[in-house]
Design goal:
Layout: H1 2-7, E1 14-16, H2 17-25, H3 29-34, E2 37-41, E3 57-62, H4 67-74, E4 78-82, H5 86-98, E5 102-106, H6 109-118, E6 126-130, H7 138-148, E7 153-158, H8 163-169, E8 179-181, H9 186-198
Parallel strand pairs: 4-5, 4-6, 6-7, 7-8
Antiparallel strand pairs: 1-3, 2-3
Helix pairs in contact: 6-7
């Protein structure tokens, strides 16, 4: 009955982020998903993007493939992304968002730290940090984030070949899989993010 009622309006219903978050907070989204529907974030083509597109909008979609369950899981994961190179920041953010992750991206590490400090300590599941940044480098930012939330998972991004040094001075770095070497293929980038989130 639920399925029949929504069949005619699939892909014609769109809601803003406020209502989406409200539905999420009342746990109403799982009942939709059990009946073969989900809300998917609408991503505007780059040439149509404006300041207004910063507000997330979601459309009602029928579940029609196996990628939904992966994106459904991703939609509950919050990632902090910090890189002073705007083109890399934009590319990584777009790549992560296309996988369903919720991403807050910052070109200024001090602004990222202030934003992180104002959030709930457990809000972010993962932080992806460039190492070389002006003002506050990735290592300094790492220690400050860990002081706020000891359990935050961290990935470093760097063009430097500094893996041995980093693994020796940072207690939570277990292996080279915690450091993404630039340049990186986007498929490899996503794979490393997934691996980090499951550790």
């Amino acid at each position: 009955m639920f399925k029949d009622k929504f069949k005619c309006i699939t892909e014609r219903v769109a809601i803003g982020d406020g209502l989406y978050q409200l539905l999420h907070s009342f746990s109403l989204l799982p009942s939709l998903e059990e009946n073969h529907y989900h809300f998917e974030k609408i991503v505007m083509p780059e040439y149509q993007q404006t300041q207004l597109n910063n507000y997330p909008v979601y459309s009602l979609q029928a579940n029609n493939n196996s990628t939904f369950s992966q994106q459904q899981q991703s939609s509950f994961i919050n990632i902090l992304l910090v890189d002073d190179e705007e083109d890399i920041l934009y590319t990584f953010k777009k790549c992560l968002a296309s996988e369903g992750y919720k991403v807050e991206a910052f070109v200024d590490p001090m602004e990222a730290l202030r934003y992180f400090a104002r959030s709930k300590p457990s809000h972010y599941n993962l932080a992806i940090l460039d190492i070389r940044m002006p003002g506050l480098n990735g290592l300094q930012l790492y220690y400050r984030l860990k002081a706020i939330n000891r359990n935050i998972k961290i990935l470093f991004v760097s063009a430097l070949d500094a893996v041995p040094e980093l693994t020796s001075i940072l207690p939570d770095l277990k292996s080279t899989s915690d450091i993404i070497k630039k340049p990186v293929a986007l498929d490899d980038f996503i794979s490393m993010v997934r691996t980090a989130l499951t550790r």
